[in-house]
Amino acid sequence: MTPSCPPSTAEAGWLRRRGGEIALWLAVPLAVALFLPEYYLLATHVAALGLFALSLDLLVGYAGLLSLGHAMFFGIGAYTAGLLAVHGWGEPISGLLIAALVAGLLGLITSFAVLRVQHLAQLMVTLGFGLLVFEAANRARWLTGGDDGLQGMVVSPVLGMFEFDLFGQTAFFYTFVVLALCFIVATRIIDSPFGLTLEGLRENPKRMAAIGTPTAARLRQAYVFAAIFAGIAGALMAQTSQFVALETLSFGLSAEVLIMLLLGGAGHRYGGLVGAAVFVIARDLLSDLNPQYWQFGVGGVMVLVVLFAPGGVLGILRSLRQRLMPVARTSTTKAVPATPATKGGTA
Amino acid sequence: MLAILLTVLFDGLAYGMLLFLISIGLSVTMGMMGFVNLAHGAFAMFGGYVATTLMQRAGVPFLVTLPVAFAVVALASIVVERLLYQRLYRRGPLDQVLFTVGLTFMSVAGITWFYGPSQQPVVLPAFLQGQVNLLGLEVGIFRLFLVAVGLLVAAAVVLGVERTRFGAKIRAAVDNPVMATGLGINVGGVFALTFAIGSGLAGLGGALGIQILGLTPAFPLKYLVLFLIVVSVGGLGSVGGALLAACVVGVIDMMTKYFLPEIGSFIIYAVMVALLMWRPHGLLGKKS
């Protein structure tokens, strides 16, 4: 992959490349506000979990690392924002930033251990750290409320103007704007030489090391970025629901976010968002009927996705588009930089 | 105090034997084909439900249900392997994780649908109940039975792998599948049979463990982490490693539950992370 990416291209080209995306990002909240105001809560959920899945995508889809403990960062962000709000620091935006900082620090500390090992050991070490943090939060009842969850959060209005209302309108727009900002940052990261380095490391770590890439440092940076985004997602979830459940740290959530990502399509910026939307909406619909339907259904979908649609939802869309418009291929590959034909995790 | 300590140690060993029985198949198949089979716990659960169904519906005695559980699960696993798993050997570990977790979810939901979410009962025959005095130590007969079965299976597996022709094929396939194929070994066939035996042992472990591990539809998810700890700490594909790791995990887990309940599972996870930092390929695993 030659560096045919953004910085050198002209300003007009930028609008042409991103125009459709910008329109999409403006249309979605408008559509929710106009047509589905009773679903603000669900949409907020999708946005926060979408950001969480996006953060995992940086690791799994782009850098080719494995993680079964990503909920650790989500939960630590949620508890940081939650504890701040319980103890009188209700200002949400600074709460987000502090949560991001704490999650990033935890990411930095654990990254040294996680990157020492590979394959199964890497899965197990991430899983182990996740379980350790979960157990710690579970035992520290005096601080976290244990398995009753953290209650009594008081969150101030956003920017001192928009109070969190009963209908979840403020919560939704707040979450959505933060998601959009994080998405822009993530896009810049992915399109940067650093992002291309990560993809190179995913495809062939030995060759990247041979051409002089500081392998461990780059992966560590990716790990910290992912932790920061996950922490912000967790903090958003805590602030908008004004409650932190112990499950935000659980292995179950780590597995769920991986499912969301692979369902949507790993290694693609929109994979996590699409996956989170499909997952959360389907759970909302099916769990109402019967929890077993949901569990059986999600299991069945996972099996079918792996067997017949390894690229997830976005993989299906991409192959459909290529089949319908074979001529347009050259322009699309240019517009969407770095769409891996094979999925991540070939490590 | 010493008596309590020894009793807990013994209980931990019995618990470790169950973990060994269930995990050994996972260790060998993961070491052989590099296939991350997170649905392995579902095979163990399946064995448990086969046993409990036979006991409750047909009045089959406990000891007879054990070989039946082994055989049924082994046969079922061959079907699953040939139909589904073998399509995924060339895929990345993430696809395998997603697929097998999906299968686990389906089996959990399916079992809940048929049996309900509650704990399944088990009636042990009279001669396996009660306590016996062993060298001045009061131990449960059933736990003694578990340790005996575990050691017997471990010996059989070690001898089978080390001394038989089929075992030599397994070792060759684990060490170097390409070379093994070149020597005319049917690696796929060897794998299918090994997979069936490993799954059968998991089924046996599930049936034996109803009393100690409990049997609910949540079984595969509840114990998955412990099985994975045993496999990764022991070293992929290593029978001795799995036995050692299972005993260590069993004893540590039992000790913390007895003496340090407030710390909970903290210690076992910390030990696992530390051991993997020290030996990333497991205690007795080989460097790949």
In short, what is this structure?
Chain A has 347 residues and is an all-alpha fold. Chain A contains 15 helices and no strands.
Give your account of this protein's structure.
The complex is a heterodimer of chains A (347) and B (288). Chain A is mainly α and 347 residues long. Chain A has a domain at 16-251. Chain A contains 15 helices and no strands. Residues 1-9 and 329-347 of chain A have low confidence and may be disordered. Chain B has 288 residues and is mostly helical. Chain B has one domain. Chain B has 12 helices and 2 strands. Chain B has helices spanning 2-33, 40-58, 62-83, 93-115, 141-163, 165-175, 177-182, 187-208, 210-213, 219-234, 239-259, 266-278; strands spanning 131-134, 137-140. In chain B, helix 2 (40-58) crosses helix 3 (62-83) and helix 10 crosses helix 11 (239-259). The longest helix of chain B is centred in the N-terminal third of the chain and has 32 residues, at 2-33. At the A-B interface, helix 5, helix 11 and helix 13 of A face helix 4, helix 10 and helix 12 of B.
Q: Total number of β-strand segments of chain B?
A: 2
* N to C succession of SSEs of chain B: HHHHEEHHHHHHHH
The quaternary state of the protein chains shown equals heterodimer
How big is the Rg of chain A?
Answer: 20 Å
Largest sheet of chain A: none
Which class of secondary structure composition applies to the elements of chain A?
mainly alpha
Rounded mean pLDDT of chain A is: 85
Our estimate of the beta-strand percent of chain A is under 5%
Name the shape of chain A in a single word. Answer: globular
Keywords for this entry:
heterodimer; A: 347 residues; mainly alpha; 15 helices; globular; disordered C terminus; B: 288 residues; 2 strands; 74% helix; 3% strand
